[in-house]
Amino acid sequence: MTNDKQPTRGFRALEHTADKAMEAWGATLPELFCAAAEGMFAGGVDADQAAETQEWRIEVEAEGLEDLLRAWLSELLWLAERDESAIRRVEVEAVEAEPWRVRGRAWGGPSPAGGEHPGAPVKAVTYHGLRVWQEEGQWRARVVFDV
């Protein structure tokens, strides 16, 4: 017996000519933001090899929902780069409107020495093609990254 139902949270890579692109989805905005972070880090340093020795608390604000998703992902990317760490998992506590704000946490640790890079690491989150929408009761997003 097969289960044709899509998981409530996830991501998939999209074809893109020069950069890395993905679509993420979640039943709620917090799930969408988690899935987008997981998708951003997928294919980079093998985070499964990093110990969870560090926790980051993250809170960002933005003018709108797309801007908020970009700010959230950019903050995670900046923290990983600043601390030379691999982020293993994220949790979003809340996504609020007026003002748009996201609060969450991330866990990870030092990037493993000689860790594998199955794909090009993400350098930046772009505005190109950035979109967040609701469809059939699910939140969805499309994001393009500079690699």
General description of the model:
A hairpin with a 2-residue loop joins strand 7 (131-135) and strand 8 (138-146). With 147 residues, this protein is α+β, with helices and mostly antiparallel strands. It has one domain: Archease, Possible Chaperone, Chain: A, domain 1 (3-Layer(bab) Sandwich). Helix content is 21%, strand content 41%.
Could you tell me how far the N terminus lies from the C terminus, measured between alpha carbons in angstroms?
A: 39 Å
Assign a percent range to the helix content.
Answer: 10-25%
CATH C-level category? Alpha Beta
Beta fraction = 35-45%
Structurally, the number of domains stands at 1
Give the CATH H-level superfamily.
Archease domain
Q: CATH topology, which one?
A: Archease, Possible Chaperone, Chain: A, domain 1
The number of helices is 2
Secondary structure tally: strands: 8
Q: How would you sum up the major sheet?
A: 5 strands, antiparallel
Unreliable stretches (pLDDT < 50, length at least 5) are: 1-5
The assigned CATH architecture is 3-Layer(bab) Sandwich
Q: On the 0-100 scale, what is the average pLDDT?
A: 86
Overall geometry comes to globular
Descriptive key words:
3-stranded antiparallel β-sheet, globular, 8 strands, 147 residues, Archease, Possible Chaperone, Chain: A, domain 1, alpha+beta, single chain, 5-stranded antiparallel β-sheet, disordered N terminus
